[in-house]
Amino acid sequence: xxxxxxxxxxxxxxxxMSMMAQQHDAINLAQGFPDFEGPLALRERVAYHIANGHNxxxxxxxxxxxxxQIAGKVLDLxxxxxxxxxxxxxTPGATLGIYCAITAVIRPGDEAxxxxxxxxxxxxxxxxxxxxxxxxxxxxxxxxxxxxxxRDTINDRxxxxxxxxxxxxxxxxxxxxxxxxxxxxxxxxxxxxxSDEVYEHITFDSQPHxxxxxxxxxxxxxxxxxxxxxxxxxxxxxxxxxxxPEALMKEFLRIFQFINFSxxxxxxxxxxxFLQQCPEHHHAxxxxxxxxxxxxxxxxSPSRFKLIPTQGTYFQLAEYRAIAAEPDIxxxxxxxxxxKVAAIPVSAFYRDPPSQHVVRFCFAKxxxxxxxxxxxxxxx
Length: 380
Ligand SMILES: Cc1ncc(COP(=O)(O)O)c(C=O)c1O
Description:
Blueprint: H1 13-23, E1 27-28, H2 40-51, H3 64-78, E2 88-91, H4 93-105, E3 111-116, H5 122-128, E4 132-137, H6 147-153, E5 158-164, H7 176-186, E6 192-196, H8 216-219, E7 222-227, H9 228-231, E8 240-243, H10 246-259, H11 265-277, H12 280-300, E9 306-308, E10 315-319, H13 328-339, E11 341-342, E12 344-345, E13 358-362, H14 367-377
Parallel strand pairs: 1-11, 3-4, 3-5, 5-6, 6-7
Antiparallel strand pairs: 2-8, 7-8, 9-10, 10-13, 12-13
Helix pairs in contact: 2-11, 3-11, 4-10, 12-14
The protein binds pyridoxal-5'-phosphate.
Pyridoxal-5'-phosphate (PLP) binds at residues 32, 93-95, 119, 164, 168, 196, 198, 227, 229, 235, 240.
């Protein structure tokens, strides 16, 4: 009999809702992926590199040209100077980067603080490494961080804080006040940070993304994680990256070499070309998704859902109290089965969900998909 290393964890909610959407032929506003293609020129570069001999193992930390482009990008965007040879690792998706960073830091008995609602890979990574998660719920309905709770939770066993901005599922963006509070909370302590910034380019209303790479004091203890899947509408390629100070990156790579060794070569060469040739793509991504957010809000305005403002990512939370009283898991199941629109129940992002009736819609969809889905949602 195998011992269950992740008791209480079944198939994740994104997979479940996508399966259900397929089974019931429902419009999938649940799982976070676009229903449109990434840039043609980028896809053509992958085909080019596959046809032209870039099909063997890439170097452990990544193709040098891509690491240089990543270093150039964070210098350009965040004023952060990193050495592409010692501080950058390209990973098979952000997910594996997060796992390797957790594994580099967490020893049995160490505590990691995570903020609920949060992305579902953080806690299993900590548990698999023998660590313990301490959960702090964000405030409702504005999803701020209660910094007093953070200070009260930090203790001598605290080894890691896992943060996410722009935040999935709420769309919350960290503020300068959050950064200051974080700086004060960890000062003088042996605490590391994983900053999950996979939606770094998707912020709205001219608000900046406050990458932790902007703040040298924090960057010195941070693994910053990003995802090319989110930036280039290519989640299936599984390519992301991690940036960390040299000493942290050494540990990260020591682990990564035994978990996956390296990341898909042709995609890396193609991404290196595209980043160099088309930086406009990531500069324009916020506006691209802001138009989708605004369209979704406008289309949903006659509905009885109450939308909770989103400042970034491609997700929109909606409270459905005026429509139904049932818990969100039942509501989303019924929505998929009977009304043919799939969404994610937000309680799935919590260990101790507060009493709220909120679902998450993904608006990374063709305008027509959004029109069809909202037409149904407005009749509820
Ligand atoms: C907050 C957050 N972190 C990490 C990931 C994983 O990114 P990737 O697909 O590159 O593994 C996602 C994907 O949805 C996410 O929403």
